[in-house]
Amino acid sequence: MSELREEIEKRRTFAIISHPDAGKTTLTEKFLLYGGAINLAGSVKGKATARHAVSDWMEIEKQRGISVTSSVLQFSYGGCCINILDTPGHQDFSEDTYRTLMAADSAVMVIDASKGVEAQTKKLFKVCTLRHIPIFTFINKMDRDAMDTFALLDDIEKNLGIETCPMNWPIGSGKAFKGVYDRQNQEILTYDGTEKGTKEGTESRIPFDDEAAVEQKIGKDALENLKDEIDLMDGASAEFDLDTVRAGQLTPVFFGSALMNFGVETFLTHFLEMALPPTPRVSDKGEIDPVENAFSAFVFKIQANMNKAHRDRIAFMRICSGKYVSDMDVRHVQSGRTGRLQQPQQLMASDRKVIQEAYAGDIIGVFDPGLYSIGDTLCDPSYSFRYEGIPTFAPEHFARVRQVDTMKRDQFVKGITQIAQEGAIQIFKELGSGMEEIIAGVVGMLQLDVLKFRLESEYNVEIRLDVLPYEHIRWIRSNADVRKITGTTDMKRVEDMKGNPLLLFINPWSVQMVLERNEGLVLEEFSRD
Ligand code: G4P
Prior knowledge:
14 helices
């Protein structure tokens, strides 16, 4: 096997999707622990102080003690080179969280066993299904009282519309948690409280047909119950099929406790076996094979002003084919320019290191002199294809933006337009109007604070934000005359910066009502322009 193929086939690039507090950080820490990337769990982030260390790129991050940017963690385990893309949650949930999913080849979905599918997981899942990437489920916190296992699986199937296949089955939960039954190996993986933060697991395995040993370990009642549940599960759950998993139509489900480090290594091992290395990506000239082609990548995120003194920007790109070596010439397809990437770097939890080489599947950040936009393609100078663009995701919060000092009109328009071009916010205006009335749309509320902060600190423009009650936005896909659409009282007509008409709604049910009132109208939640 060529060195290139070997390197690329070792790569597993994935994102973890979850609702805040489900255990994403804890699980990531445990993964890193297995990979030997950190010595002690708890040092990744999660605590305000640790978060300062992760990133001090923007002053606002320091002020708030949270990370606005998402980083990439790379480590090795079991012969694989793993890239975990961080998908920021909590207050720093933003369009970047969605865009990051465009750079992942698969997703790990962490669900809190006592809560089931929650709002943010649902949103992130929806974005994953746009690309049909495989999704692996880890049902976490089994050391706490959990929902009924069948109810949990049902919840995933009904709420997310994906079939589930339990790979193991929990024996009790909370204080009565005894471990899991491994379906494939037909054995019990027993749980005896693990010391927090250590790798020394106390998992032990007992073959299921050694009934006496199993009964001694988990008790007679738990064993009877388990047998009943196994019978039910065998009859009710979908058959495991790797192709269906890889097509994103069936999610393998594992149970465990990230905090207690139970079931994590089993999950990681199975995940690495089932998840695919980088696969071909679609371009306007057909599919681009990761191994057969020379270097190509696309930009999925732009982080502005990491260093205020230089007003610099970092463009994050996902390498889709071939190998990047420092000092090689690369074509930026959208501008037609060929040159070297400036200061290419890879990000590890807290430090950035300049890289000499990187392969398909890896993420690199490069200095952006203001050339790149989200979705742009970079490739070997002999190529000229473009990767499919990154959709514009529906903002969920809107605010009217006005400058306080009307004399600073030009700076205001320039600043807000530049920030919108970076993809940090979206801007809309009244139909047919100029830039007098601007409405900013964001995925996470924090982005509005970032907008205010950046306009003040970088463009010296003070603004006033009036939050508007709209929560739902729809792009118009059909050829309808937007002025003639029969609306609802809570509907507002606006246009984006390219002049595309859009509708804003306060109530979700109004969307359906407008569709019913206007025959042939097609509305969409994502824009691919
Ligand atoms: P997130 O990144 O998805 O937001 O979640 P995070 O890992 O930060 O976990 C949220 C809380 O849930 C933390 O508690 C964490 O310790 C706890 N947790 C994570 N996994 C498990 C698990 O398997 N079992 C139990 N019982 N708890 C779990 P915290 O009180 O907010 O923080 P900490 O003081 O414990 O660190």
